[in-house]
Amino acid sequence: MAKPKFGDRARTFIDDYTRDLTARDLQRVFTRETRAMVSFFTQGTQQADVTQKDLLRHPFRNARQFFLAFAMRLTAARRMLYAGAAVLFVIGLIDGLTPDPGEPLWDTGIVKLLVAFGLIHLILLLEVADRLTLKHELNVARDIQRAMLPAGTLTVGTIEAHGETQPANTVGGDFFDILPRVDGQVLVILGDVAGKGTPAALLMALFLAMTRTLLDEALPPAVLALRLNEQLMRHSPRSRFITAFIALFDPRTNEMRYVNAGQNPPMVRRVSGRLEWLPPTGMALGLSRKATYEENTLTLGPGDLLLAYSDGITEAESPAGVAFEDEGLRVLADQMGGLSAGLVARRVIDEVKAHTDDSVLFDDLTVLVCRRLDTEAPPPIPMADGSNNDER
């Protein structure tokens, strides 16, 4: 077999190196990602609220503050290596710009520049290794978090319920739950933990555990909200709270009793196409021990559906900065007639992602759909893989 030519090997290397690269990704590095990076490293500094205009107005002062903000986030040893590399770079640059004809080549500043280059790359490799280790751990946490949420569509009597979530980061603070009770009623919950990422995911797991522990007590939504609020006040940081929509559906009467604890108003689409919105009936959970929650009742007719969603849905922005808002849901509502709960949930997520044009999400996307069937559904037929064929 003939040995590949140098040009072919170079072309293969370039293709591998630039795989999945798009012009938009490259542009994002110098726009959105750079702004996010500056915001991250300047948190807690004097220039945290400084605009880009001010950054250019005082470049040396801001460069010094940014250098310190970045360096102080490194470990002590890496911080010293970084300082040493910076000093060597400056000295090497001065030596290179003011050469002495009598000094040897290795003492013209080139060696100092090469050492500085090596130290910077050593720090880079160490930081990347830490990041990849953390990324692996977060991927495991993501799998655990997904396993905690119900999969597929649950059908009980005349109601079918389905949830979908898309975290902005590897793990997120949005959640939903669909819990059949021993008395035949179905408890559905959609919630949003303040914040994003790992802290929100941990509080989300705590909330789900508390909810499932209280399930056997068969509490009405208002009492359940009070109990959950009390537990959050005891066990969560004061800076964290949870907005939640808690509803209890009775397949025998087709009534849904609900509490909206500071969550975005869920949308009810009647089979006629008329839309209703369910405003909050109490404050977010975990804010005050004096919180009270009012319980309202809703009746779902055949073909009616309820769509609960997190604020990431309505606040998702297009590349031009236009939010999806409630108007986007109103447009989608015209396309929901006759669709199953699962198809509605996935369509909402897909439409929001299309609206953002696959840009980086700044908040989690979560929807929970409950749909009243025309007639009571038969028991789901087990599939060969163990799942239920209950998707319509």
From TrEMBL:
Keywords, sorted A to Z? Hydrolase, Membrane, Transmembrane, Transmembrane helix
Task: Give me the segments passing through the membrane.
Answer: 80-98, 110-129
Q: What Pfam family is a match for this entry? A: SpoIIE
Per the database record, which ranges form the PPM-type phosphatase domain?
154-372
Enzyme Commission number(s) from the entry: 3.1.3.3
Q: Which domain of life is it from?
A: Bacteria
Read off the InterPro entries from this record.
Answer: Bact_Sigma-Reg (IPR052016), PPM-type-like_dom_sf (IPR036457), PPM-type_phosphatase-like_dom (IPR001932)
Q: Which class of enzymes does this protein belong to?
A: hydrolase
Q: Which GO MF terms are attached to this record? A: phosphatase activity
Q: What is this protein called?
A: Phosphoserine phosphatase RsbU
Question: What gene is it encoded by?
Answer: rsbU_8
